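Hey team,

Sharing the Efflux RND transporter periplasmic adaptor subunit run so nobody has to redo it. Sequence (351 residues) first:
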Amino acid sequence: MTVSAYLFLALALVPAAAAVAAPVLTVSAAQQRQLGIRTIVVQPAGAAPIATLPATIAPPPGARVAVSAPFPGVIRQSFAVSGQAVRKGEALASVFSREVLEMGAELTRARARGGVAKSAAARTDQLVREGIAAGARAEEARAALKEADADVSSRSRLLGLANADPATGLYVLRAPIAGRVSSTTVQIGSAIDGMAAPFIIDAARRYAVEAQLPERLVGQVRVGDRIGLAGGVTGTVTSVGVTIDPQTRSALLKASVPAAPGLVTGRSISVALFGPAVAGAVTIPASAIARIGGRTIVFTQAANGFAIRPVTLVSAGGTSAVVTGLPAGARVVTSGVSELKAMGLAAPAGN
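Structure output:
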């Protein structure tokens, strides 16, 4: 009988009777170090991947803010580029605007008018108290003073909101929120229109994930279910569409994930959907799985080496897999699996 046939027969007998021990490969501690073998403790599976879908990173609702230009002008300096992280209040660009100069001159004139109106109101009040002028004259003077004060206040507020210096004609565009600049149309020397949005900033705390959920999975995926992205990033489903698109036969799924390196608005990714795991299932790294003799197996730590343990693959997604046939708490090999498989095919298992 060949070696691989021996192993196949041994593996086939393992699930047939609990009393039959799994084949064991004898591996010394020195060999384990040489082969770079590493193990982890198997954990019960709380959820299992049910599908992997193509998806797109998008900004969550209310997380995208347009930085508008309050006055038309010319970009003097740019301090931020697309993709740059910015703090709230950080300067993005400085703009020279003729309108800021004109607004400053109008503010000066308004203050002068306010001073005249204040003096006139004081004089009129004095004349009314002396009985020289009618009370209506005093009311007219106070109304003119309020109008002048309102004009000064309005122009001062506009210049303040724009971070503008009326003496130089410059104003500064600042980030209204902390986040990342997702797009910018700014070029030094270029003109911008009033109320244009030369910068778009996305809040850096979370991102949304949008995917098309196949019709067969509608009803299986629910709000609150877990999703997984490459790099160990996890999130939760926030909404599942109730309308099937007649062309794609799918519904829109949205999820929320925390900000992480590599997550950029508009990027295409793959997302794993997780559902409840079957009873007795455990989660292991996908790197722990091998195939010998047509069977799916893992290597578990034994007293003098590693046992070849057949398992049933329930689901796999990304870097993890869910299997049955393996007790929680067992130590499974995650690195050096191919070397152990080669040893198992090269020599009879067991002692």
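Confidence is low (pLDDT under 50) at residues 1-20.

Ping me if you want the raw files.
A.
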